[in-house]
Amino acid sequence: MMPLIDRARLLADLDALAAISAPGAPGVTRVAFTPAFDEGRRWLRARFEQAGLRAAVDAGGNLIGRREGDSGLPPILIGSHSDTVFGGGRYDGALGVLAALAVARALRDQPLRHGLWVCDYLAEEATDYGVACVGSQALAGALTTDALALRGPDGRSVAEALRAVGGAPEHLNEARLAPGSFAAALELHIEQGPRLERADARLAAVSGIVGIRRVRLLLTGQPDHAGTTPMDARHDALAAAAAIVLRLEALARATPEAIATVGRIEARPNQGNVVPASVALAAEIRSLQPLLIAQIWGALLEGAQAECAARGVTLAVQALEDAPPALPAPWLFDLVSNVCRRLDPRAIALPSGAGHDTGYLAAIGPTAMIFVPSVGGRSHCPEEHTSPSDLVLGAQALLEAVLAVDAGGTTSTDETE
Amino acid sequence: MMPLIDRARLLADLDALAAISAPGAPGVTRVAFTPAFDEGRRWLRARFEQAGLRAAVDAGGNLIGRREGDSGLPPILIGSHSDTVFGGGRYDGALGVLAALAVARALRDQPLRHGLWVCDYLAEEATDYGVACVGSQALAGALTTDALALRGPDGRSVAEALRAVGGAPEHLNEARLAPGSFAAALELHIEQGPRLERADARLAAVSGIVGIRRVRLLLTGQPDHAGTTPMDARHDALAAAAAIVLRLEALARATPEAIATVGRIEARPNQGNVVPASVALAAEIRSLQPLLIAQIWGALLEGAQAECAARGVTLAVQALEDAPPALPAPWLFDLVSNVCRRLDPRAIALPSGAGHDTGYLAAIGPTAMIFVPSVGGRSHCPEEHTSPSDLVLGAQALLEAVLAVDAGGTTSTDETE
Question: What is the ipTM metric for this complex?
Answer without folding.
Answer: 0.72
